[in-house]
Amino acid sequence: MYSPAQARFRGLLAAALMLGASSPTLAIAATPSAPTARAEAQVLSLSQQIIAMRSVVGQGNETGKVAAAIRDALVAGGWSATDVEIVPYKDTAYLIATWKGSDAKLKPLVVSGHMDVVEAKRADWQRDPFVPVVEDGILYGRGATDMKFNAAQAVSSLIDLRRGGYKPKRTIVVAFSGDEETTMETSRQIAQRLKDAELVINVDGGGGKLDEGTGKPVYWTWDGAEKTYADFKLEVTNAGGHSSAPRPDNAIVQLSRALERIGAYHFTAEQNPLTKAWFERAAAFESDAATAAAMRAFAANANDAKALEVLRANPATVGKVGTTCVPTMVSGGHALNALPQRATANINCRIFPGHKPADIMAELAKVASEPAVKFTDVTEGSIASPASPMRDDFVKASEAAIHAAYPGVAVIPAQASGASDSMWYRSVGVAAYGASPTMTKDSEDFSHGLNERVRLSNVRPGLVYFNTLFTRLSQ
């Protein structure tokens, strides 16, 4: 026996299969925001198709197959085969698909995302992570939230618009990278190719919160900036010796003193327009009165010591008040009965926009106050990037789009703590915004974790959102 949600989506999938690529174009409602049943079915079918592909770095990487599946969907939806490019790179690939606008003078709108996923092992999961399953209206599988479902939604929306006769003035470019979860080399290459774009909508960012009890939308966020990822290696070396003859210059002790000082250190608290707006608006949805008061106080004064004490003690807010650096790995010594010849540690930093990693590393060296400790930047796959401006065209279009999907839902700008392809666009001067419409309960957010999932109740409102957003920003 199928649940109502399962029955609905099985019906949609059957409809999509019956229509086929060669069937006549379907008529859609007069307003571009109204998606067709065919588009809804395609979101599910394409999501299932690409979730089943193991697009994980290394041997057997199937990111190229994901790109081919998306290409085939676009070509069936009206794109010329010559307008969809798949570029192999090492064991992965990236995709760039172009829907040419009527006004060649307008810079393109980029729809950004990625096709790769983090590793997932069958033994750890309740279900096979690469066999998509729908149960009780929820789609399970690696990439369900990060971010194959979002990719399927965005692609299905564009196909729906094109089949419905929509003609953009501004060229729309779909740009999906193939190694966002690792080295981001294809992300960098794409941004270099598209550095003349007008703006980027990254569907791998932002999103909304559902109430744990009712399942109704609470608020929706978009992000216009992200902190810079950095790894710094700390190393102490000396001659070592017999453990029966200890000396003051013990590599492990010296490194430990440096780590203790770094662990206790707080970087100067900071704000930008995005984080200030987040603290001001998100405070209304904070259930803990003390935290809510601290959020409002910090928004009013970034130097409020009492507010900072509360916010820095909370894992949900500590990363939003400024740069954070924390020891994540440590290694030392070579024998149980010998003085250590070498001790190393890794410090992972999430740097507030506007600072160079080299300056943060220099500040850490000063805090460590151990001349014997050598600091080295060992960061891979990251670059410092400025915050995108709160552009009026994007803000109005995104609010209109999310309100078309979820009338009256609160909208909160944000700054992401994690890394995404957006940093590469921002680093070359292109405004990029993380703006996924997907709504999730906090208890069901398993991105990068076990039993990743997404509610299929997101399908129709997500299409309404994308149809509205894409049409408004491509005129």
From TrEMBL:
Protease recorded as keyword: yes
Domain (Peptidase M20 dimerisation): residue spans on this chain: 225-374
Signal peptide from the UniProt entry: 1-29
Any Pfam family the entry gives: M20_dimer
GO biological process, one term: proteolysis
Xref: InterPro entries: Bact_exopeptidase_dim_dom, Pept_M20A, Peptidase_M20, Peptidase_M20_dimer
GO MF, one example: peptidase activity
Sorted UniProt keywords: Hydrolase, Metal-binding, Protease, Signal, Zinc
Keyword Hydrolase attributed: yes
Transmembrane regions listed in the UniProt entry: none
Family according to the record: Belongs to the peptidase M20A family.
PANTHER family reported for this sequence: N-FATTY-ACYL-AMINO ACID SYNTHASE/HYDROLASE PM20D1 (PTHR45962), N-FATTY-ACYL-AMINO ACID SYNTHASE_HYDROLASE PM20D1 (PTHR45962:SF1)
Protein's name in the database: M20/M25/M40 family metallo-hydrolase
Organism: Novosphingobium olei
